[in-house]
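Lab notes, practical 5.
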Amino acid sequence: MSSMEISNLTRNVLKSIFAKGKRFDKRGLLDMKDFELEYGVSNMAEGSARVKLGKTDVVVGIKLSTGEPYPDSLDKGNLAVSGDLLPLASPRFESGPPKFKGIELPRLIDRMVRESGMLDFKKLVIKKGENVWNVFIDIYPINDDGALIDAASIACVAALKNAVFPGIDENGNADYKKRTKNKLPLSKEIVPISFTFYKLDESMIIHPTREEEEACDAKITFGISKWNGQFMVNSCQKGWESTFTKEEIEKIMEILPKKYEEIMKKLNKFLK
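Output from the prediction step:
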């Protein structure tokens, strides 16, 4: 439960101002943070992007290699997502084996990308049953001031759009000395984004600061996209101990399309 990480005084103060529909940074409860996006932040990756969502700062790199397909998907390429939550990014992160948040972050981003259909795995095949492209998405938070999953989702989409294939040598291995201009096989229409809603008592917020996030006692993350004019929920995960009512979920379903369009209006300026 997140609220155990802060004092009861801080939690009660936040509960009081949320009940009045206010926040310390002047936003409304369901107002999102603004974001900035930068490409090419890693010269070692095949694609990379850095997103600053408020004070939350995250870098995503895309690495491509060749290898064997998974036994249950011989006609598809492979996808793997990792998240490196270092103490540099937050006092909540510790060195050593990954805690739950270090597992949750890459798992949610993986599911968001995989289930949306954004990436055409069949077009990652070099030789069916023998050689395919592996797509590695590496997430590196620089500063976690809340809404890390949502910030990482934007950076992930941008980094995937930025990535280009390396060459292939005579043995079928990636040749990193030869950069091609070939982009990943991505859908032009499908762009998945994650939105996490947090709840404190009876109040619901989005894009929290670190203190707001730690005060809340329930959260739910949706990965959504838009295809053929229809909004699609590609992934969903509920977190922490408290619950969301049916009415609250229905409210979220009404809000999601508006928030998606709001994000995409700015993101499209970077993706073109």
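Observations recorded by the TA: The radius of gyration is 19 Å. The chain has a mean pLDDT of 93.
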